C-alpha cells in the first residue's frame, strides 16, 4: 500500500513536474485502453449493493435478476481507511481513489503536509485523454473535487470550482451552480461566491458550453456535442434530487436528468472529441440517504448508479477490446445490515415494505413536520396529519403500540422545539430532525434492515470490473491500489513518493484538521437550496 512522503524535496519535485506537464503534449500509450470508466458509489458498501439487488429481483419479478455491477467479470474487496483514522471521510477516500495516496480526512488532492498529488483524471488529461466527471452531488463536492482540485479543505468549494476551471476537463455535470455563478447574476441565481468572479463566464471563454440551473435541463438533454466543445452543467443549486424523488415526484427540482442521462451525455461529449477518454461517474446520493438511515432512498440511488453503469456497459459491448470499466466506492455509510432482531422469528427480510415508500427522508421528510407546526397550531390535529402523511408516503399504516409511541415521542420533541440532549442525539442523530429519523427507523425495521451509525464506517467495500486487463484488480485490495493499477493499465503517470505507514494503522488516530473540523460530516442540505 502506498501512502505519502513528507519533505521540501517532494514539494519542489511536484512544482517542477507540474510545470513540465503544462508544456508537454502527450499521446495515449500504445496498448492502453482507449476508453476508461470509473464508477464510484459514495457510501456504497456490500449491504447497499446486495439489498439493492434483492429489491431489484422483487421489482422485476425475476429471481435470476442481478445488478449489472454485481455481474462483472472481476471482483475484489477494498479497505478504505484514511491517513489519520480508520474511518475515512469522502475527501480522503476520494483522494485515495483518485491519486493512490492516503491523506487526512477533509483534504482533497493533497498529502497531509499540503503537497499536491496528481489525480488519475489529470494524468489521463496530460496523456491525451478527454476527461469528464459526472455526479449527483455538487460538482465541487468531495469526490469530484478529489479528481479535479487540490485544497486543504473540502469545504472550500469556491476555490475548488476555480481549480476545476483550471483543470480544463472536457465534461463536468451534476449540481452546485452556487459555486460557479457570480453574486447578482442576471438570472437571479443564488451564489455562494464571495470574490465577485463569474466562473460561468470564465468557463465560456475557455470554450465551454454551459447549462446552469434547472431552466437549462431541457437544453442539456437536447444538446448535441461537437468536437472541440466542452461542457459545464451544474443543473441545481446544491446536489441533484434523490432518485426516489425523481421517480415519484412531479416537482420541477426532481425532474432533473438521472445519473444515467448524465453518463450518456458524458459519453457523447467525450466521444465527440475523437480521442480516447476517461469518465468518472459518482452516485453521490447513496451516501446522503445512508447518513439518515433511509433504506429505500439508499436502494433507489444504488439502482440509479447501476443504470448509469448500463450506459457505459453498452458502450463497452461495442468496444470490448478497448474499454475498461471499474466500479468501486469510497467507503460504507450507516453500518447498513440486512437483518434485525425484533422478535424470536428474526431470520427474514421484508424488502417489499420499501415498495410503499414514495419519498426521500432527507430531501422531503425533513421539512414536513416543521411545516405542519406552522399549518396546524393545535398539537392533536398536527400529529394526526403527520401520521396520515407518513402512512400515505412511507407505508406506515396499522402502527402497533411500540411504533406509535416512537413516532409520538419524536413529534413531542419537535413540538417543544427543544435542543436535543446528548442521549437524544444518539437516538435521532446530530444533524437530523427527530421525526424524520423516527420514520426512517420504523421503515427500516419493517423491512428488517438495521443501521449502526449516522456516519461512515470502516467496512470494506466491493469492487467489480470488466474489460481491458480488468483481472488486475482482483483480490483483497486497498483503495490506494485502484488508481495505481488503473494508471499502469492506461500507461499514465501518477505522483511518486516514498511510502510511509498510515498513522491510523499505527494506532495514532487523530481528528480532522482544524479548518475541516468546522464542517459537519453529515449532509443536511436539501436540493431545493434551503442552505
UniProtKB/TrEMBL annotation:
Keywords: Hydrolase, Magnesium, Metal-binding, Phosphoprotein, Signal, Zinc. Its cofactor is Mg(2+); Zn(2+). The keyword Zinc applies. Belongs to the alkaline phosphatase family. Residues 1-29 form the signal peptide. The keyword Magnesium applies. GO terms for molecular function: alkaline phosphatase activity; metal ion binding. Gene3D superfamilies: 1.10.60.40, Alkaline Phosphatase, subunit A. This is Alkaline phosphatase. Mg(2+) binds at residues 42, 141, 143, 282. The lineage of its organism: Bacteria, Pseudomonadati, Thermodesulfobacteriota, Desulfobacteria, Desulfobacterales. Zn(2+) binds at residues 42, 287, 291, 330-331, 456. The active site is at residue 90. It comes from the Bacteria. InterPro entries: Alkaline_phosphatase, Alkaline_phosphatase_AS, Alkaline_phosphatase_core_sf. It comes from Desulfoluna spongiiphila. SUPFAM superfamilies: Alkaline phosphatase-like (SSF53649). Binds 1 Mg(2+) ion. Binds 2 Zn(2+) ions.
Amino acid at each position: 500500500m502506498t501512502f505519502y512522503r513528507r519533505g521540501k524535496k517532494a514539494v519542489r519535485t511536484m512544482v517542477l513536474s507540474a510545470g513540465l506537464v503544462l508544456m508537454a503534449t502527450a499521446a495515449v500509450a500504445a496498448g492502453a485502453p482507449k476508453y476508461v470508466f470509473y464508477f464510484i458509489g459514495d457510501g456504497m458498501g456490500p449491504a447497499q449493493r446486495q439489498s439493492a439487488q434483492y429489491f431489484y429481483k422483487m421489482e422485476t419479478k425475476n429471481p435470476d435478476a442481478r445488478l449489472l455491477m454485481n455481474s462483472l467479470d472481476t471482483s475484489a474487496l477494498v479497505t478504505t481507511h484514511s491517513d489519520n483514522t480508520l474511518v475515512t471521510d469522502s475527501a480522503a477516500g476520494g483522494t485515495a481513489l483518485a491519486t493512490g495516496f492516503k491523506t487526512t480526512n477533509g483534504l482533497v488532492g493533497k498529502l497531509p503536509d499540503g503537497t499536491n498529488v496528481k489525480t488519475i483524471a489529470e494524468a489521463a488529461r496530460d496523456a491525451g485523454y478527454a476527461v469528464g466527471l459526472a455526479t449527483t452531488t455538487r460538482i465541487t463536492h468531495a469526490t469530484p473535487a478529489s479528481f479535479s482540485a487540490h485544497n486543504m479543505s473540502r469545504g472550500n468549494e469556491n476555490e475548488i470550482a476555480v481549480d476545476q476551471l483550471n483543470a480544463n476537463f472536457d465534461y463536468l455535470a451534476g449540481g452546485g451552480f452556487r459555486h460557479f455563478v457570480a453574486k447578482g447574476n442576471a438570472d437571479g441565481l443564488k451564489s455562494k461566491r464571495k470574490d465577485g468572479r463569474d466562473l460561468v463566464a470564465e468557463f465560456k471563454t475557455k470554450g465551454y458550453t454551459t447549462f446552469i440551473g434547472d431552466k437549462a435541463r431541457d437544453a442539456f438533454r437536447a444538446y448535441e456535442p461537437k468536437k472541440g466543445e466542452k461542457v459545464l452543467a451544474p443543473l441545481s443549486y446544491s446536489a441533484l434530487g434523490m432518485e426516489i424523488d425523481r421517480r415519484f415526484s412531479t416537482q420541477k427540482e426532481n425532474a432533473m436528468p438521472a445519473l444515467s442521462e448524465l453518463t450518456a451525455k458524458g459519453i457523447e461529449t467525450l466521444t465527440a472529441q475523437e480521442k480516447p477518454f476517461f469518465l468518472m461517474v459518482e452516485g453521490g446520493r447513496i451516501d446522503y440517504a445512508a447518513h439518515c438511515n433511509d433504506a429505500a432512498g439508499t436502494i433507489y440511488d444504488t439502482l440509479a448508479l447501476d443504470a448509469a453503469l448500463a450506459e457505459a456497459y453498452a458502450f463497452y459491448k461495442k468496444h470490448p477490446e478497448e474499454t475498461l470499466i471499474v466500479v468501486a466506492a469510497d467507503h460504507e455509510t450507516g453500518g447498513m445490515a440486512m437483518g434485525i432482531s425484533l422478535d424470536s422469528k428474526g431470520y427474514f427480510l421484508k424488502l417489499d415494505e420499501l415498495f410503499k415508500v414514495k419519498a426521500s427522508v432527507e430531501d422531503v421528510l425533513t421539512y414536513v413536520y416543521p411545516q405542519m407546526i406552522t399549518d396546524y397550531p393545535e398539537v392533536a390535529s398536527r400529529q394526526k396529519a403527520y401520521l396520515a402523511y407518513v402512512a400515505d408516503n412511507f407505508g406506515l399504516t396499522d402502527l402497533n403500540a411500540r411504533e406509535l409511541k416512537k413516532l409520538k415521542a419524536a413529534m413531542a420533541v419537535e413540538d417543544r422545539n427543544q435542543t436535543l440532549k446528548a442521549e437524544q442525539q444518539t437516538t435521532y442523530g446530530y444533524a437530523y430532525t427527530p421525526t424524520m429519523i423516527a420514520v426512517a427507523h420504523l421503515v427500516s425495521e419493517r423491512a428488517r434492515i438495521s443501521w449502526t451509525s449516522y456516519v461512515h464506517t470502516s467496512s470494506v467495500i466491493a469492487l467489480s470490473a470488466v474489460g481491458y486487463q480488468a483481472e488486475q484488480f482482483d483480490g483483497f485490495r486497498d483503495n490506494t491500489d485502484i488508481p495505481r493499477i488503473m494508471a499502469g493499465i492506461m500507461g499514465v503517470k501518477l505522483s511518486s513518493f516514498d511510502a510511509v505507514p498510515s498513522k491510523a494503522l499505527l494506532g495514532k488516530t487523530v481528528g480532522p484538521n482544524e479548518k475541516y473540523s468546522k464542517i459537519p460530516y453529515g449532509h443536511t442540505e436539501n436540493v431545493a437550496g434551503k442552505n
